[in-house]
């Protein structure tokens, strides 16, 4: 009767609090995901606004040159030299073109390797597009390619649409003559003083540039984005997928590629495909999307948040910007907290039951003691004393009972004195044994982690364990071999002891586990033998403090010292091997990679892998080092850990 109400009340309160915490966490995730989608979409639109303005800025430059009579549109060589010279001023532009009303075309082009070339289609060459290398002054040099004759650029949309609009305007997406890329070009018609069409300026952008920008955006952990036209054809995507498919143009001489635009619903990327299908299900046609909107869709049982935004300009651009973010990117910690809450509820249930039992026993035991003492007195054993309970009613009953047996006080006192002397001896011996046990346990704790040592003491075994994620740090004193060759061994050991003792204090400070030292190398790990979510941050803090300490320590060995540190995050196996001279050690590829990060690092630097970078980049300053050749692993992307962010 005492235990059940006590348990139900406490456990119910904990369960309600845990449920409300989970619901609030879900709401917070939705709010954060919405904010992130909005921010990413705004950044994409800002960048697009900047990019699509570039051709029209170039037209202003061309018009200024015309007004100052620096160009003669009737002199093709003069025009192509001017256009070739405009490319360095507009580094994001792919081609600068002038299409004359008489079908001739002159242009400057930036090729794959960054080389600036000249292309021309003239009456003298039967309107074949010929590509020339250019001198530093923009003069034609060597012919590097000759296209088909009778090429008429006036049929292209970048010519026809601006002429129809009678103003600067965007044409449609078109393929490069090589078939390797898709371009989008804007044109501006030029008229004589009498109103006759003289030709069209055209400036084009490579769609690869749009995809490169999207791929550089960090959208949660695994989010994606893409841009499409109202027709459903792809403009660019952050996944690196090409917005077109190429096919050999059979019979073409020289050989060329035929391109076909990619529909987003036919994308090879499942998320891009499902997101576009979800938009079509919602709006029936991409043309019906006239304002920003948000929705959800599911791929392989995983929910994704989607935001779609129209992007338009006054010159003919009408695109859709789509951002997708997996719900799992944000729910991981919430789910982990839910599991923790469930465990806490179970722990609370057990604790409440134990407390209920103890409370019931506290009430029952005084009554049982009086009952037992009464039975003993009834059998002739008068040597009975009942402890007075702190419960008032039971205490009064005990006092009455003790008054009945007070005549046995003298004899009972003598017995008590003898018992106390014996207990003192037992306590003394027990204390000595406890001290010896504590010494042996402390010695074991200095060798092994506390949890492992306790397991060995309790079960005499410590099998190896697998940890899904831990962060390993290797540190090495630069030039130690040279130092050890010129100083006394005792001085060398004393210096190392001073440095490693300071590192040991940092290990204790951040709750990490020192594994071992080998010579001047120091190894420490975070996230075991007890898992912790912030193991990478704790290792990063220790690494920064280690480097700071080495910078402050002066002339331990008669000269300034530098340390080289490497860090990696990944799964490991940890445990104690053998039955003598215990040592707690780690195994696994993550350990080897951490060692490589140290050995391939630089003095005074902290080098981390991409796995550790993903754990730290929100709270720490990291600088990409780039890809390096790592023994046994090939090319790896690594980063320098510089310090903590001031806002974290």
UniProtKB/TrEMBL annotation:
Keyword match Lyase: yes
Family statement drawn from the similarity comment of this UniProt entry: Belongs to the adenylyl cyclase class-4/guanylyl cyclase family.
Protein name in the entry: HAMP domain-containing protein
Residues of the HAMP domain: 361-413
Matches recorded under Pfam families: Guanylate_cyc, HAMP
Main location group: membrane
Coiled coil: none
PANTHER family in the record: GUANYLATE CYCLASE, GUANYLYL CYCLASE
InterPro entries, sorted: A/G_cyclase (IPR001054), A/G_cyclase_CS (IPR018297), Cyclic_nucleotide_synthase (IPR050401), HAMP_dom (IPR003660), Nucleotide_cyclase (IPR029787)
Domain of life: Bacteria
TM segment ranges: 341-360
Localization annotation: Membrane
Keywords attached to this entry: Lyase, Membrane, Nucleotide-binding, Transmembrane, Transmembrane helix
UniProt entry tagged with the keyword Nucleotide-binding: yes
Residues of the Guanylate cyclase domain: 471-598
């Amino acid at each position: 009767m005492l235990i059940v109400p006590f348990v139900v009340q406490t456990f119910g309160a904990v369960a309600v609090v845990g449920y409300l915490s989970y619901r609030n966490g879900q709401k917070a995730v939705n709010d954060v995901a919405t904010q992130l989608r909005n921010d990413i979409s705004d950044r994409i639109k800002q960048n697009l606004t900047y990019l699509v303005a570039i051709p029209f800025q170039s037209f202003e430059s061309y018009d200024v040159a015309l007004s100052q009579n620096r160009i003669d549109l009737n002199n093709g060589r003069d025009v192509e030299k001017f256009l070739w010279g405009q490319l360095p001023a507009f580094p994001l532009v792919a081609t600068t073109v002038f299409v004359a009303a008489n079908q001739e075309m002159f242009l400057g082009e930036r090729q794959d390797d960054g080389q600036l070339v000249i292309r021309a289609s003239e009456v003298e060459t039967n309107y074949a597009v010929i590509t020339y290398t250019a001198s530093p002054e923009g003069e034609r040099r060597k012919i590097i390619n000759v296209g088909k004759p009778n090429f008429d650029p006036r049929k292209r949309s970048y010519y026809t649409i601006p002429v129809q609009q009678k103003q600067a305007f965007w044409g449609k997406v078109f393929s490069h003559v090589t078939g390797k890329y898709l371009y989008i070009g804007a044109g501006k018609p030029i008229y004589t003083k009498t109103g006759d069409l003289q030709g069209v300026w055209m400036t084009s952008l490579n769609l690869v540039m749009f995809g490169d920008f999207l791929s550089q955006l960090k959208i949660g952990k695994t989010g994606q984005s893409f841009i499409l036209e109202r027709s459903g054809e792809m403009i660019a995507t952050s996944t690196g997928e090409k917005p077109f498919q190429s096919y050999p143009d059979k019979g073409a001489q020289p050989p060329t590629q035929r391109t076909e635009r990619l529909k987003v619903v036919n994308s090879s990327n499942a998320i891009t495909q499902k997101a576009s299908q979800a938009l079509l299900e919602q709006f029936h046609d991409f043309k019906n999307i006239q304002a920003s909107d948000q929705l959800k869709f599911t791929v392989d049982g995983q929910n994704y948040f989607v935001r779609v935004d129209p992007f338009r300009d006054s010159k003919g651009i009408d695109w859709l910007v789509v951002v997708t973010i997996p719900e799992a990117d944000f729910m991981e910690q919430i789910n982990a907290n839910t599991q923790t809450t469930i465990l806490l509820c179970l722990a609370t249930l057990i604790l409440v039951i134990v407390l209920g039992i103890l409370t019931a026993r506290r009430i029952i035991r005084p009554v049982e003691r009086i009952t037992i003492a009464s039975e003993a007195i009834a059998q002739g054993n008068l040597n009975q004393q009942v402890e007075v309970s702190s419960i008032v009613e039971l205490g009064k009953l005990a006092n009455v009972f003790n008054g009945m047996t007070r005549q046995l006080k003298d004899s009972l006192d003598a017995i008590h004195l003898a018992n106390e002397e014996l207990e003192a001896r037992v306590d003394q011996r027990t204390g000595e044994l406890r001290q010896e046990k504590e010494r042996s346990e402390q010695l074991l704790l200095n060798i092994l982690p506390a949890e492992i040592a306790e397991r060995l003491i309790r079960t005499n075994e410590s099998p190896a364990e697998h940890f899904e994620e831990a962060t390993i740090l290797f540190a090495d004193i630069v030039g130690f071999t040279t130092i050890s060759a010129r100083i006394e061994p005792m001085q060398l050991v004393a210096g190392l002891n001073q440095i490693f003792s300071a590192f040991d204090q940092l290990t204790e400070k951040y709750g990490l586990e020192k594994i071992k030292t080998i010579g001047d190398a120091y190894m420490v790990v975070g996230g075991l033998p007890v898992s912790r979510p912030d193991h990478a941050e704790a290792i990063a803090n220790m690494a920064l403090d280690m480097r700071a300490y080495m910078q402050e320590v002066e002339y331990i060995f008669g000269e300034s010292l530098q340390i080289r540190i490497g860090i990696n995050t990944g799964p490991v196996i940890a445990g104690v091997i053998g039955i003598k001279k215990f040592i707690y050690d780690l195994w696994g590829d993550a350990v080897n990679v951490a060692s490589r990060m140290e050995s391939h690092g630089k003095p005074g630097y902290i080098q981390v892998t991409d796995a550790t970078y993903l754990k730290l980049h929100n709270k720490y300053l990291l600088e990409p080092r780039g890809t390096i050749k790592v023994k046994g692993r090939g090319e790896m992307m690594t980063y320098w850990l510089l310090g903590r962010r001031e806002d974290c």
